[in-house]
Design brief:
Number of domains: 2
Strand order of the largest sheet: 2-1-3-10-4-11
CATH superfamily of the largest domain: Periplasmic binding protein-like II
Oligomer: single chain
Shape: globular
CATH topology of the largest domain: D-Maltodextrin-Binding Protein, domain 2
Number of helices: 12
Largest sheet: 6 strands, mixed
Order of helices and strands: HEHHEHEHHEEEHEHEHHEEHEH
CATH architecture of the largest domain: 3-Layer(aba) Sandwich
Strand content: 15-25%
Number of strands: 11
Amino acid sequence: MKLFIVFILFIVSSISLFANEEKLKIGIMYEKLFTTKKEAKIGSELWLKQMQEKDKNFKLEMIFYKDEKRLLDDYINKKISVIVSNAISYYENKKIIDSFSNHKWVMSLSEGIFDKFYLIKNRELKFDLESLKNKKIYYKNEMAKIWLDSLIFKEKKKSIIKKYTKIEKANKLIFNIFFNKNELSIISKDTYESMLELNPQIKQKIEIVSESEAMFFDGIGFTRKDICSEFEKMLELMRIKLVKKEKEFDVLSFVDIQKVYILKNNDLDKLDRFYKDYSNLKKIYK
């Protein structure tokens, strides 16, 4: 939810520069970023209200979607100008989204732009890839599951995992393994290291058995080609303000966002190749 809040903050803080523009409409696939629509609305309305008290000169409407096809249709037909979703949604609709978008942008919780995944286990668990077919595996990010499936397809030339369990609270990815030696979790490096700082004992009980390349992210935003010619300047302004920790971002001091980044043409090449390879392997082994 933290990354989504900063997506919204970016939009809100930028609109004041273009007060005469028409209302900006943002489409959000809430099930891709939240547990429920209620959670999405509460979180966004709370932060929008707080930012509106700081600047009343913007016009903004957020539209929450459950139907991905409807969101894309509205994006194509100019009913919304910005969409926020996740990596899988992007790759499943890449051709359409790219053809109507001028910018792709992400927020980062770390010094780098991209994150990596760890497959972790309790140190008491004896482990090999083949044993995963009898284990429960926890995950939060859908791309984490895809990464592990891809790894197994390449190593074992077959699909072996029978039970993935999605976890909504990231800390449970650690705690479930900490107290149970018969299960595993896939967790992002950023989340793992943040929890390790809070509780160094984690390292004594938990072992990283495999890790991905740094090419993943949680949320991604897209803007239509016709939204605003000044969009890159707005993003750069947001990036500078975050780095300088200016007063208007005090309300987000707990989020610890490090970077705002406009994706350039080649930035997703590694992830593009990964997802294409996974899709091909899935057809063979799934």
